[in-house]
Amino acid sequence: MSTFRSDLLKGKTAFVSGASSGINLHIATRFALAGARVTIMSRSPEKIEAAAAGIRAGGGDAIGIAQDVRDHEGVGAALQKAVDEFGAFDILVSGAAGNFVAPFNKISYNGFRAVVDIDLIGTYNVLRQGFAHLRRPGASVINISAGQSFTPYPYQAHVNAAKAGVDMLTRTLAIEWGGLGVRVNSIVPGPIADTEGMARLAPDAETAAKTARRIPLGRFGTKDEIADLALFLSSPAASFITGTLAVRWSDQGAWIEILAMKMSR
Questions:
Q1: Local structure of residue 91 (DSSP, 8 states)
Q2: Cα–Cα distance, 196 to 102 (Å, whole number)
Q3: Of 141, 216, 213, nearest to 177 (Cα)?
């Protein structure tokens, strides 16, 4: 059950990239259930249409567009298609991400570039191409980041670099776009249960339990909690919040431990 009233985003329009599954799809679904008309984008035609159909089956108004976030012109075309369908965006979420575990000396050029292209350049593409379609003043832009943006995790050099860039974009655009009435914030989820990321990093019950014990609340977060955070940042209650990194607490030691265990296998 959401903390917020069911019609909170009635009449609003949202665009969410990287939303065929996981946290981003949960955010898009929550927006739709709160009354927003939602466009979701991801590169797999089958997955994104299935995700949009799922939102519609739950009573939401949504379309899915298949597009690789790394394609600058393609992202622009996807955004235009969404505007043609639903109108200008009140909410723009950049959430596409890539990751794998490897020491820096084992990360190939193509591997490093792929993560930077998806996470950082992909965010640039969505925000740069999306700006012209934002309803101003009043629009909310949200970037989905990670703890690697400010804590240097071993075996994550590529993600550390990419997410640090994403969060610096957040801070910079909060300044540049603030005078236009556009708010820009990052969500840093931390360890979230039932996501692909945690399935890769903590694939067995023992590792997951050991990691959870290092988190002050003694558990992983939920996709519902992140979706409610995104809903809050897009609501009138957050109308004076911009340039922030909305961080769910995660213990650095837990992440370093889980990565070290992963590499030792």
A1: E
A2: 17
A3: 141
Residue-level pLDDT at 194: 85
CB 184 within 8 A of CB 243: yes
Q: 163, 148 in Cβ contact below 8 A?
A: yes
**Claim: this prediction has a pTM higher than 0.85:** yes
Q: Are 126 and 94 contacting, i.e. CB atoms less than 8 angstroms apart?
A: yes
| CA atoms within 13 Å, Cβ hemisphere of 112 | 12
**Fold adopted by 13-264:** Rossmann fold (3.40.50)
User: Which pLDDT score is estimated for 257?
Assistant: 55
92: nearest Cα among 234, 194, 192, 225: 234
Strands (E), the chain: 13-17, 37-42, 61-66, 91-94, 140-144, 183-188, 245-247
pLDDT at 262: 58
pLDDT at 191 (0 to 100):
85
Q: Name residues of the chain where pLDDT drops below 70.
A: 1-2, 247-265
Q: Where are the domains of the chain?
A: 13-264
- Strand locations in 67-117, DSSP E? 91-94
pLDDT reported for residue 103: 95
Q: What's the one-letter identity of residue 21?
A: S
Q: Do residues 159 and 120 make contact, with C-beta atoms less than 8 angstroms apart? A: no
- The predicted pLDDT at position 224 comes to 93
Beta-strand relationship, 245-247 and 140-144: unpaired
- 94 CB burial (10 A radius; 0-12, 13-18, 19+): buried
